[in-house]
Amino acid sequence: MTPRDASEPNGSRWSDLDRPPLNVTALRRGLVREGGLWSEVEVVQRTGSTNSDLVARAAEGRAAEGAVLVAEEQTAGRGRLDRQWSAPPRSGLFFSVLLTPGEVPVARWGWLPLLTGVAVATGLSRAAGVDTALKWPNDLLVTVGGEERKAGGILAERAGDDGVVIGVGINVSLRADELPVPTAGSLGLAGAVSTDRDPLLRGVLRSLEEWYGKWRAAGGDAGACGLHEAYAAGCATLGRVVRAELPGDRAVVGEAVAVDGDGRLVLATGEGVQEPVGAGDIVHLRPA
């Protein structure tokens, strides 16, 4: 699907006055600066997937590091394991960024989704006043009515040999009757002091720029730049009994005891084995 510019008039899509469109001019003014990470900010009205669009642009040489692509509405947004991610227009933040950490060994790029999680949680805490937690490897959790709910997710995809596109989806003003599943949540339902998406997006991207700069300067060493410690401190998965559903229809149940130096989740199983999990679906079986 071809993206349409956010300024394109379409009265039916501007009917919800509680959900004004993003101000792309103000976003560019606040984020794109000489010497900074963000090189361009584009907002489109509607597209299938910002990740797919930005990966394609990078492959064609039409996007540089620091490109930010934001959609007011995604019709084919994807999470991990090709799960669909959909939400009403302008009810959330749906964006992708292109990073090219050439001086960091590729073996350490697996930290990028975790780094993004820390950055998003930090930025939202500051801008929305909502306590957030991270579910390994890529979910953002909030508390709604005393229950843990998923309010966001992160998807990283390689873009050619030297790039990574990181996609982020965050439910901002989603109402209870709009939730796609009972386990979903939003910043609004979690008591956010603000659901104004412009300052929320600026806060998240500034936090991402800060964490990415630290990690890159440390050559991708998550311990040296404080990322490992920050992720562990904010990770709701640690200390809980979980089931890891792994590729090949294999499952492992154990206590999540650590995130190792490669960003893998370490499970202590009932057989007394510590098993690192690098990819898989994690189900929290009981509270920490």
Key descriptive features of the protein:
288 residues, alpha+beta, eight-stranded mixed β-sheet, five-stranded antiparallel β-sheet, 5 helices, 22% helix, 30% strand, globular, ligase activity, biotin--[biotin carboxyl-carrier protein] ligase, aa-tRNA-synth_II/BPL/LPL, EC 6.3.4.15
3D structure, described in words:
It holds the Pfam family BPL_LplA_LipB. InterPro entries: aa-tRNA-synth_II/BPL/LPL (IPR045864), Biotin_CoA_COase_ligase (IPR004408), BPL_C (IPR003142), BPL_LPL_catalytic (IPR004143). One of its GO terms (molecular function) is ligase activity. Residues 27-216 form the BPL/LPL catalytic domain. The chain is 22% helix and 30% strand. It is of the alpha+beta class. α3 (112-128) crosses α5 (227-234).
Distance between the termini: 43 Å
Individual helix count: 5
Globally, the shape reads globular
Derived structural class: alpha+beta
SSE pattern, N- to C-terminal: EHEHEEEEHEEEEHHEEEEE
Mean pLDDT across residues: 91
Q: Major sheet: order of its strands?
A: 1-2-3-6-10-9-8-7
User: Beta-sheet strand percentage?
Assistant: 25-35%
Number of strands: 15
Low-confidence stretches: 1-14
Can you give the helix content as a percent range? 10-25%
Main beta-sheet annotation: 8 strands, mixed
Q: What is this structure, in a nutshell?
A:
This is biotin--[biotin carboxyl-carrier protein] ligase. The protein has 288 residues and is α+β, with helices and mostly antiparallel strands.
List the helices and strands and how they pair.
Blueprint lengths: L3 E2 L18 H8 L8 E7 L3 H10 L7 E5 L5 E2 L5 E2 L6 E8 L12 H17 L4 E3 L3 E6 L2 E13 L3 E9 L25 H21 L9 H8 L6 E6 L3 E10 L5 E5 L4 E4 L3 E4 L4
Helix pairs in contact: 1-4, 3-4, 3-5
